[in-house]
Amino acid sequence: MSEKKFLIQDIQDVTNSELLSRVRNLKADEYRLIQICATTKEEGFEVLYSFDKDHIVLNLRLVIGENDEVESVTKEYWHAFIYENEMSDLFGIKFLHNELDYNGHFFKVAEKTPWKNK
Amino acid sequence: MGKRTIIPFGPQHPVLPEPVHLDLVIEDEKVVEAIPSIGFIHRGLEKLVEKKEYTEMVYVIERICGICSFGHGWGYCAAVEGAMDVKVPERAEYLRTIWMELSRMHSHLLWLGLLADGFGFESLFQHCWRIRETILDIFEETTGGRVIFSVCKVGGIRKNINNETLAKIDGILEGIRKDIKEVADVFIEDDSVKNRLVGVGVLTKEDAIELGTVGPVARASGVEQDIRLTGSGVYDEIGFEPIIETAGDSYARCVVRIRELFQSINLIQKSIAKIPDGDIEIPVKGNVTGEFVLRLEQPRGEAFYYAKGFDKGTKFLERMRVRTPTNANIPAMVKTLQNCDLADVPILILTIDPCISCTER
Amino acid sequence: MGTFKIGKLVMKSLFRKPATLMYPVIPRKWQERTRGHISIDEASCILCGICDKKCPTNAITIDKKTRTWTIQRMQCIQCGCCTEVCPKKCLGMEPEYTEPGVSKVVDIFTIPQVEKKANSGTNSSNAGDGELKCNLDECVYCGLCAKNCPVSALEVDRKEKIWKVDKDACITCGVCIDKCPKKCLVIE
Q: Going by CATH, does the domain composed of B42-359 fall within 1.10.645.10?
């Protein structure tokens, strides 16, 4: 019986400046992007990037302040546009150099950035 | 050089099971570009985590979607159990796997019916759904509900199935195996169906890997990826191999799902043969701290669950994130829609099996 | 030749009986475990209020002054939590669904008042009867009874070895009796 791969939990912290170079290395290593999600904390947000290779998950955690801007990873992984647009619509996180930016109109919400700490 | 027009597709359309909006840029009946936009069913369910304790949140998470309902319940409970470091008994894992495979069968039969309806073959649609009714009756007999089961809880499951009922389920499945074969033969061999599906919407293997596709859409393009190999549930004990096709067109996606139907029947029969006796739950007390990442193979692909408790530990979770497979397949859909005929647009949207209420919880 | 492959299926269904039921002329057969609606055995209810707290959609309301147990049928999601936590097991899940209607259905049940008997002594399941007593020789002051009391009527202090019950607040639901590891609590 093989070892249970889903029990391997790997979460690494990363800073805003080294995010893009880490992601480029992972892309060169043939990792697949699974998802990007954000959690609201008291001061700022915590963004979690998840990657997968051979069915083992690797997570990167990025802690940012409320008005920080994050480099978009859409140049490496084009399909990240869905997650980044959703985060900018719901949380108000700004992404730089997004290749497919809906400018706040991806999600039809009744009030702007409903999940941000007001 | 033709003139370009923009046609809005959706959110209301007879072929779509759920509302999604696409702006199609067309030039003389050929689609040049497609721009998706979603948000019609956004209910903000993940934000309810602030108001409902972790034992009650399972009822909210189950209701994200009607078709993949059991998968979400299992994913949430397993993520919270991982964060609290709780191991469920063997019998509970077997029963969860059996219900998940039955869910997969009912979802694929539903999709086959919708696909037939998509190209106008209504009698085939009704025959597929007639077979699906026997599976819904099995659900009602074992869990009490046809669509929303409310049978998973943190620490195990709430209702047991005794061995006579399991033997009866085995008999029922053997009986519908013949019925499914008759319907599957129509999909695979009929000329009129093949004319609509073969060669339409080809997704190459490199594109599938580049765009991060998951589920049967990726497996139909030759990518070997199935989360059932990671070990949640009891798939490694009953033996499991993913089903791969290489053509990458809509016909291959249809064939992958039909073969998965037969594979699910075999998996359920093997689990029923091997299920051990024992408890079905362990009591779970206390607060949630810690975080856990879990992935499950839903009928539509890979679903990602992330549960995080507060550092000081309360009965409320800080964040619950569900990323569903349709969310990952939308870029692939946009890519296959480029350079296709306008009449093929509904079929291409249906072949990725869109479950928009999952995408936008 | 791959034409009209569905012919065999169509011929068969011409001669089979239909798969659908002539509902509502022929009534539907309910399965045993179907989660339809909640029913209550009024005689056993002691108005403890645990079902009110545990309901995830707040469909159940308990009013102790007027002795009523109210359920909003359209708010109930038939999850079955209330049936599992009721200490007297007076709630049950029946298989018939609530009929669809044009207005929201609210069902109110009145819980009958039970006369207090002079010498009970028997294991009567009457509501609101008797007093909670603790065998202090066996008690280890663990505090589990106080933590699980739904009305916070118990006070336990491990260091000072104090065990107190507020008799006015106590509703004699019996949850503390189930939780006590030394089985030193009794209602009589």
A: yes
